[in-house]
Design goal:
Blueprint lengths: L4 H4 L5 E7 L8 E7 L14 H16 L6 E5 L1 H7 L1 H14 L7 E5 L9 E5 L7 H21 L8 H4 L5 H10 L10 H7 L5 H6 L11
Parallel strand pairs: 1-4, 4-5
Antiparallel strand pairs: 1-2, 2-3
Amino acid sequence: MPNFKIERGCQGLVCGVDEAGRGPLAGPVVAAAVPRGLRSVLDDSKTLTIQQREACYNGLRRCADRGVARIGVGAASVLEIDRINILRAALLAMTRAVGVLGVLPDTALIDGDIAPPLTCAIQTVVKGDALSFSIAAASVIAKVTRDRIMRGLAPRYPGYGWETNVGYATPEHGEGIRRLGVTRHHRRSFAPVRLAIEGEAILPLVAELEPGSEAVESL
């Protein structure tokens, strides 16, 4: 379980930053920033069930509504992902999340080993969502926010399975692209989408990918 050990080693106001949605074939990449100060039971969003994530998300939002905490959420659009690539877009979303916190943290704990350009001190933490409570909280906020965006789009774009796969590469999603074509929410720089636009068969490629794979860009 994550804890505040890393945060306690930092001076001043510390926030955790994480993103969700680097791997999907469709939709934005979303990041969140959550300062230290929340007390609850949560873990890396990827290890929680949908119900557990929603419960943690609602608890974190209630803390923000009561003024106990601040939450910043940022995103980078599909157009930005295609223009600057998914890694830079994820870092841009992180920068935007910190920028809307309403307060400048003294230190930002960034999940992973690559940091966005922030004006505060930065500490990258590999697998930080399993180690730092602040990063784990940001992970939950980013994941639930992005999943809700994709589920909200699903009724407008039936046939792709976004209600359940939230844009990730699944056989159902690949079949939807084959039958219905590419929407404006698809990432055209990602190999399965690009191949579909070019008229190539994509189902064998999609079948080889794990649902959360990030290995779909520019294959």
